[in-house]
Amino acid sequence: MENWDVIIIGAGSAGLAAGIYAVRSGLKTLILDEKFAGGTISDAPTIVNYPGFAEISGGELAQKMTNHARKLGATIRDLETVTALNLSGEIKTVTTTRTTYGAKAIIIATGSHYKEIGVKGEKEFRGRGVSYCGVCDGPFFKGKRVLVVGGGNTAATTVLYLSGIAAEVIVVHRRGGFRAEESLISGIFTKPNVKIMWNTEILEIKGEKVVKSVTLIDNMTQQQSEIATDAVFVQIGEAPNSQLAIANGIETDEHGYIKIDIRQQTNQPGVFAAGDVTNHPVKQVGTAVGQGITAALEAYSYIRKPYYRK
Known about the structure:
310 residues; alpha/beta; seven-stranded mixed sheet
């Protein structure tokens, strides 16, 4: 069994920031991710609110963080899924699809996954016109009509991105106004090829081999309609990837987010959590990075027990 000082589960913004600070603190550090390092920010076409970068693509920022962690000496193992944990005792074990590791401290930074609408046709046409990532799949629909579901920052960013690719972007939002940042909202209203359908929800996604249309309902009048579209981009938020934590006794709130204290400590000694998987109320790259830094420094204190830590 390989032994490490700290194992970080998840290589998104929080996990990579934790890795950078853990290595700088002299800890032997392993970062595991079931996908590739970078996390969900890799899907963001543009990030305009991360300090130091007036504008940068999510993919570029994620790559910079990954390179930074590796350059300092963190070991990052992509495509290695954690399947089991044993969090009791001084040495905790992490079992993956490849092997079992031991560590003195664990940082859970597993992030979140895209929420689904839960309507007929959504699962059937996933990857065939139904998408959860504008920057990933938007270029496939150049010059076509696409539909974006949602009204928060993620949806607004996707709308702005797709407006430069698609012939027409239809925004379907169940409320009567956006919840996104004002700078994003004002940008949307300048786009002549963007149409907004307020107080509207999708009832069904239809097609044959690929998406062809959607059935909509006006939730004020209850009137139904059907419109043609080549793609449906679902951008209604995320849900935490906390199933493994819950299965191993980590306490969560009613929505499944891991409960943490001011030191990023969970209810299990030596187990910390950071980023979008936690119950921190703000889900931003900057807050994820800050949480990752705190978790790493607290893991160092837990392991090394320095004189200044009471």
